[in-house]
Amino acid sequence: MAEHQFDSPQAPEISIRHSTDGDIEGIFALYGQRSCYAGTLQRPYPSLTFWQKRLKDLPENCYSLVAVREGKIVGQLGMEVYSNARRKHVANFGMAVCESARGQGIGSALLGAMIDLATNWLAVRRIELEVYTDNEAAVALYKSHGFEIEGEAKDYAFRDGRYVNAFLMARCC
Question: In the prediction, which pLDDT does 1 show?
């Protein structure tokens, strides 16, 4: 299995690789953390069966990268490259980082690996994402990797009893 090591003062010994069936329980636990489901479109109390169905047989145009440190899943990024003939040059992604591992370069390592895969191997020229407007740390991370805010979606999603807005961001290569 292809694996990339990222050694930096912020992210010591992080491996980025495509997820396997053996990672599903770790991904399930990651998205069971309140800030991970609240910061994405996931719901509270996910079932293991849901994650098994979602990750076991990914379509050919979908990728699931995990960040692993000391044998533990500390981050996950899911990317879909659009299959529509007129949008095959575009991908969209979502990600989460373990609450106890934030600010340690894990999100940056996942983004770097995904950007490399998309632009250098999959001929993707545009990468899109949606991020809640109140997630300042994520917005700053995405901007540091060349993403720009292209718009704002009002009442984008229902979270914690109210509707929240999201920025529409993209990086064109």
Answer: 43
